[in-house]
Structures
1.
Amino acid sequence: LIILLHLDAGPAERAAVRAALQRLGLAIEEARLGERTTFWVSGADVPAESLARLPGVERVVPVGSRSPLVEATRVPGGRPVSVGGATFGGGHVAVIAGPCTVEEPGALRDVARFVARAGAAALRGGVFKARTSPHAYQGGGTSALRELHAAAREVGLPCFTELTDPRQVAEVAEWADGLQIGARHMQNVPLLVEAARTGKPVLLKRHMSADVDEWLLAVEYMLKTGNERIILCERGLRSAERHVRYLLDVGVVPWLKQRIGLPVIVDPSHSAGDWSLVAPLARAAIAAGADGLIVEVHHRPETTRCDAQQALPFNDFARLVQDVRALAALDGRGLSGAPAREPPPLQAAAGA
Ligand code: PEP
Ligand code: MN
């Protein structure tokens, strides 16, 4: 098994744990795991429960699985992740909403205002886009990143944006509250590691062809840095089906929730590929136990340069948040970061 010491365990605690293990005659190997010290222990009759109570020990993890650090996140109540006022997990459901890509700053501010009033807990907006085609719009880069930050701050929300290259990490970490790693980069190990090393919350999407073990091993790379603020996001799989863009794996949500303590959210937009399917898929995800959603919303969907067909118009988003609130309440959960104020008017804001 693996003994993980607390992040702040000092040399005295380390020596005391080592001495206790030696007294028990166990074979031990000390290793750094990101910022932490760990002891990898083997031997017959290892008294896991008493080892877990030693001062300085955070957890004792059995090494039966390929992703022991992910397994170690399974603690009572889970490991909710908070990003500003948005809490994912631990009985809180949070909705991230905003455009696929940051285009005009004025329009972004309208979207931010609307989604904040409708009950979104965080603003999204792509600036470094991971596009399948090199001829497609690649995103507004640095200036768009600053616009995203400004729009989010104006409405008091944290913001999430995707990064596609380890060289973007420092800049994105400076301006964004949550770092998104997209489906196409799920196995970009240098990116996973550099993003996690910032200590910022990282939202990791599942690759459209990844099985759950591959996804969890990508999470394992990030946990190994010592950063445990990881949010998993199911966004649909490549399948034989042609009527939806990607096939949403709703079943993976309860499957993961039974086995890991990290929050699991769902992206109904990229799986649907069609705005009229977004709300039903989102409701299915929340009913299945998802800790949140990431939804593409646009003030004038027909004008956006990216994922126009799946962008949810304002009114539909406001209705969706009300449904999410009601569904979450069914199993005793609450909407995170939602204003207790009056609901937004059901008409499009400026530009429509
Ligand atoms: C996105 O969120 O805009 C995106 C590109 O998603 P995915 O990585 O799931 O394709
Ligand atoms: Mn998109």
2.
Amino acid sequence: MIVTAKLGFSAAHRLHNPNFDAEWNRQKYDKCDNAGGHGHNYVIEVSVSGDIDPQTGMVIDLTKLKDIIRRELLDHVDHRNLNSDVPFLGGVIPTAENLAVSFWKRLSPAIDEGALCQIVLHETEKNSVVYRGE
Ligand code: NI
């Protein structure tokens, strides 16, 4: 059984790899390399798999799962600059792919009922990534 919690946050980022020159970064990231940065209204879907607890009828209480997501992730990234304001993203180029991996590392140990099995991160309505821990 898989249950999913869906939450949103807004954050700014700039895609830039300091190990390469301006031309490489412009070719790879185009407008996302603008030095001023830009923002997205991200939507994250966090899925937990496990057995249904016969006493509660639930895999994990979704209210509790959302509290964990807020405490571990959203309180740290909402209305922040992902390049500079978030210690656990230090040195990470904040693409949706890298964010999903970093979010997994942070959330997985905090989920104590069932197990984290998938993160879907929507950067825009049209762009999203799926990460299943590998
Ligand atoms: Ni962007």
3.
Amino acid sequence: MNTLILLWLLVALVIFPLLLRITAPYGRHTKAGWGITLPNHIGWIIMESPAWIVMTTWFFINPADKSNVQWFFYLLYMGHYIYRSLIFPFRLRTKGKDMPLVIVLSAILFNLVNASILGYFVSYACTYTDVWFYDPRFILGLALFILGFGINFWADSTLINLRKPGETGYKIPQGGLFNYISCPNHFGEILEWCGYALLCWSVPALSFAIWTAANLLPRALSHHRWYRDKFPEYPARRKAVIPFLW
Ligand code: NDP
């Protein structure tokens, strides 16, 4: 298992510099020439659902009784992905916007492999007893996870609400963490999965956190460059994704 994860992490090492050079063409970065497209919110549902379907399959395929810790890890992950795949798409104000099929397919691959690695750990390999709930790694990791999810949810909500129903353009987001970084939603999500890696204290969860960062750091940098190009008045001191640093 660890060899497989190592190989998968090597793929992330290749993908990360590629994503720094080639901006994934969806949302504000959509452009023609990327083949077949489908409605944006349908794309989100299809590409994010494998994450919870695969995790749930692993979890219930194992007939053994699950520990409280296993249930906790499972439900925490499910909470995020049920939100991302079945609630978030219906909150978006992107009527009439499309997403390339190639993005959907690559996200499906990302989710299939990551959810399999993590699903195997949560369902089979995790042997913690209830004592783990009192471990400082679990407590700190859970605090980071909750904080990260809160920031991600708040930032996504702020961005979505910049548009009145029916609008499709872009505005400069203001307030809270937006005063320091262009992409608090990406920052929050990275924090969230770092917290999950800490509370699981396992190589599979660490691998997932690294993959999430490899995906979201380049996207945040692309968003940041885009804001600066589009809005000459864009706040000069605002960083891309890590307050005061990057
Ligand atoms: P964006 O910030 O690009 O967009 C979020 C939503 O807000 C979109 O509907 C977008 O519209 C709208 N929006 C964004 N900025 C503005 C603005 N300035 N003015 C008006 N509307 C705006 O987020 P992403 O698409 O990059 O990501 C969405 C969520 O998915 C995030 O929470 C992210 O963390 C998560 N994600 C997770 C990944 C992972 O690897 N785990 C990978 C990718 C995303 P429009 O679509 O029209 O641009």
